[in-house]
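In response to reviewer comment 3 from the previous cycle, which asked for concrete evidence that the modeling workflow produces usable outputs, we include below a single protein chain processed end to end. The sequence was submitted unchanged, and the resulting structure tokens are shown without manual editing.
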Amino acid sequence: MKHLSDRQSNPFGLRPPFDRSDADAKPAVPGYGDPNADFHVIGDHPGRHGGTASGVPFDTGDDESGVRSLLRTLGFLTGDRPDPELDNCFLSYVHMCTLPDDRPPTPEEYARLERFFDAELRAINAHILVSVGEQATAQVLEAYTTQRSRVDLEMATLHATELRGRGFLVVPLADPRHWDESLFDAARDRLTSIHESDYRQTKGVATLVG
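The workflow returned the following structure tokens.
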């Protein structure tokens, strides 16, 4: 059973426990997109992957590059900034709060928000987890697969591969700040192939909240 909502931004009403943002930044960048999505794209934090001004994950101000361009190419994202429409795709961060000067979270700060990310992931209950960058990939592999101890987090090697998780198919992507044309094409081709396949067979035991 899927969660039904017409709201694209923060459809589950999550309220992270602290505000340490700069004055001109959103306090947090919660999940955004289709809450009934089969594809869940997971990044690190707003200071790394964007959205501190708009509140939309992966909004770096440039729709012609990075994750947003990839999603537009795949047909998941339509419309213009700052409120795009997402179909069959949900975006979120392992650490949704913004921090001063876009600094990375500390290990304690990641741990403090882990339950919020976990709640969002389980509520979406997607078939495909697309982890973007090393931190998000480590988090997804540690929490939702049995493969973390067997996988070397060399993102150039892991980029656009397929890893089986506990009821999920995980597709790691290198940090989009380092993509060139070949890495973009590899991500596009892998996700297109999965999208055109019978990917729902990847889903095992349901992981709904509660």
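The first helix runs from residue 46 to 49. We consider this sufficient to address the reviewer's concern, and the full set will be provided in the supplementary archive.
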